[in-house]
Amino acid sequence: MSATDDQPIPQAPRCTGPRRLGLSGKLLLLTIPLVMIALLMIYVPSIANFWTNRLNDRLAAANTAALVLDAAPLGMVPDSLARQILTSVGARAVAIKMGQQRRMLASADLPPAIDRDIDMRTLTVWSAIVESFETMLERGNQTIRVVGPAPGGAQFIEVVVDEKPLRQAMYRFSRNLLLVSLGIAMLAAGLVYLALHYLFVRPMRRLTANLVGFHENPESAARIIVPSQRGDEIGVAERELSDMQRDLVSMLSQKSRLAALGLAVSKINHDLRNLLASSQLLSDQLASVPDPRVQRFAPKLMRSLERAIDFCQSTLSYGRAQEAEPDRRMILVEPVVSEVRESAGLAADASITWINAIERSLSIDADPDQLFRVLLNLVRNAAQALESAKGDAATLQIRITGRREGSVAIIEVSDTGPGVPAKAREHLFEAFQTSGRPGGSGLGLAIAAELVRAHGGDIHLVEGTIGATFRVSIPDRPVELQSIRNERALA
Fold this sequence. Notes:
- By secondary structure, the protein is α+β, with helices and mostly antiparallel strands.
- Helix content is about 55%, strand content about 15%.
- The strands form three sheets. A five-stranded mixed β-sheet has the order 2-1-5-4-3. Strands 7-9-10-12-11 form a five-stranded mixed β-sheet, covered by helices on one side. A two-stranded antiparallel ribbon has the order 6-8.
- A hairpin with a 2-residue loop joins β1 and β2.
- It is rod-shaped.
- About 20% of the residues are buried.
């Protein structure tokens, strides 16, 4: 089922369910996981770096202890001193390898077996991350042997440490790092959220509120959004929305005027048809009067009344004119132009010079009644433009020319008036837009353009002429050769 101009278009039901999470809430929910990801990216290398530095500190302390132990007389160190040195280093044993000899410098409470070996000389970044997390995830107190470079001529130094103190230190570091990072991240997230809220969410809420308000009353000019001075995409959206709303308000206002005009036309349509019918009866009686002047003007009067009655008949309810399809046939232009001159009252008007430059025997493929209406509107507009102009009949002229260019008939109506204002040219063939005189409806050119387009033609204002010149171009209908051949065959 299609909607027409007389039928309201059904609107989709608006959602009345529970209100979903707004743009601001979605922004907050998006910021939280991004902050957590940033924290994780900071924490992983930080804990691996802490683990690596702790082991390197043990190796550095072991190197210092090795120098002390190696400087003892005959390499003999009392057990009490060795324990103190190992306690300060935080290790159970310290060994060093020089050449082919591996020497234990000090040891205390060595376990029967070493649980893990870590060589700091070949440790990579990824290995440090994996080893650090393995240390944190272990349970109990395992023993780790750490191997690193040794000072002097030694090949490497070994230190045996307990894993539990290292793990506890890593837990403390993780807690402190997470607390500090979380505070900084929450502050940064809050600042980012506020910045995005004021830069994007608030303008979007303003746009949304304006759209909702404009939807409630689209004919109110007060609901048009006032664009801000922003130069970004939101500013462009505000300006485009403002222009679109202004155009829509203008179109709705024009539609309301058309509806009001249609309502008025529909009310007077019945009475006007009756009056015209009575006038037609009187014109029929005048046709029987033997006066020669009456006999000359009576047919034209009857024809004008018939056109008026047919036009009223074609008017639908609420004033919407249902233009019939043009009844096109080849007609001479000269008789139509003469009737237009008499109907416009220019035949007896000596203040305006009428110049007829129609080619002899010029024919046009058009509906005679609709062509009459087109030319009458153009001629009346030209006459009205000359009403306010000062001058004599020699300078106040209306010229109508006609010629044929191939299969296109061209008719031009020009005058020597002030011309069409530049402001009116923007909406020249739109209804209610170009009337510049008191009491004018602004429908003449709109009606003429509609009728010309129904013929598949074109009407436009010719630039660079004195006054105003309107050119009407109507092409002939294409000829169907097969139908002509069939007609000739039947003939």
